[in-house]
């Protein structure tokens, strides 16, 4: 009888198991949802695109949509209850537009093409693509609906740049936290083998 030789693990093997574990965990879902909901305290317009993109790229689809929509709902509740958003039809429509935008960004991010599941570099590339695509979709929807509602709704390049910067900073921070949790799970999996 020949001694068995261990099968070498690929980068995908080291990545996929902890990613799956974290994507299904209540811990990451709750952490992401609570941080997103709390961001409404800091920002009148929280980084909905960043949270939706990260939720879609790091959670199972149902959890991703639930997380993204909870963050959006928390921002609306906080706005209407504590920031005194006006109770007008236009204000409510804007809230719904942002809700649809958040939902669409999360849906796009949940697509996770095969390259994004092969390892850290593919995952990072997908998060960047989801953020960029989501930002264009979200802001495009806001501009389009603004035009329909008011006849004009213009963002300056400076405003768009600042919005993109805020969304990017949040995405990097959340992706780094997610990467750290994956790294911790990878170590825990290696110890348990």
Automatic annotation (TrEMBL):
Keyword Transmembrane helix set for record: yes
Domain of life of the source: Bacteria
UniProt keywords, alphabetically: Membrane, Transmembrane, Transmembrane helix
TM ranges: 27-51, 63-81, 93-111, 123-149, 161-183
Protein name per the record: Uncharacterized protein
Source organism per UniProt: Drouetiella hepatica Uher 2000/2452
């Amino acid at each position: 009888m020949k001694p068995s030789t261990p099968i070498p693990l690929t980068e995908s093997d080291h990545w996929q198991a902890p990613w799956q574990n974290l994507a299904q965990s209540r811990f990451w879902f709750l952490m992401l949802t609570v941080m997103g909901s709390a961001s409404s305290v800091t920002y009148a317009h929280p980084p909905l695109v960043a949270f939706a993109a990260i939720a879609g790229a790091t959670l199972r689809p149902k959890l991703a949509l639930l997380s993204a929509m909870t963050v959006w709902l928390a921002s609306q509740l906080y706005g209407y209850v504590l920031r005194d958003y006006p109770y007008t039809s236009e204000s409510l429509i804007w809230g719904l537009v942002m809700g649809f935008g958040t939902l669409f960004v999360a849906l796009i991010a949940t697509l996770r093409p095969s390259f994004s599941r092969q390892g850290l570099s593919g995952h990072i590339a997908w998060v960047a693509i989801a953020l960029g695509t989501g930002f264009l979709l979200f802001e495009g929807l806001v501009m389009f609906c603004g035009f329909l509602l008011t006849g004009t709704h213009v963002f300056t390049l400076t405003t768009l740049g600042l919005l993109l910067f805020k969304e990017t900073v949040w995405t990097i921070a959340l992706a780094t936290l997610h990467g750290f949790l994956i790294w911790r799970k990878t170590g825990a999996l290696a110890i348990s083998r």
